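Backbone-to-sequence.
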């Protein structure tokens, strides 16, 4: 991921794509998979940045993009905020396939987090320049 940033100046962030690689059947429960796909659809329609997995937590981002950033997110919606931040700075986002396996321990994400993520998608889209 770091090599992609080093070799491609237009790329501002590299993200792991859980849906374009190997997914362990135990890793994504149906309600979370459907919710993730619906949120990804809303993100792509409103944002205009075509990402297959805009909510992935695995990402590498250029430090100059983060300088001076005032974080608004307080939870799992930070991915949406980062996607918009990179876009506003004029960089592209590249996705690479990753393997996704079942979590060791308890899942932290709750269905209510999906509502927070959708709100962030709407807020970030409303305030785009």
């Amino acid at each position: 991921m770091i090599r992609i940033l080093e070799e491609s100046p237009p790329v501002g962030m590299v993200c792991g794509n859980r849906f374009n690689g190997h997914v362990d059947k135990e890793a994504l429960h149906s309600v979370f998979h459907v919710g993730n796909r619906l949120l990804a659809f809303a993100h792509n329609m409103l944002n205009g940045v075509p990402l297959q997995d805009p909510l992935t937590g695995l990402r590498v981002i250029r430090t100059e993009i983060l300088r001076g950033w005032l974080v608004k997110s307080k939870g799992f919606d930070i991915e949406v905020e980062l996607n918009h931040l990179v876009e506003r700075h004029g960089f592209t986002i590249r996705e690479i396939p990753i393997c996704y396996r079942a979590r060791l321990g308890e899942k932290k994400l709750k269905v209510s987090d999906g509502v927070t993520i959708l709100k962030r998608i709407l807020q970030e889209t409303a305030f785009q320049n």
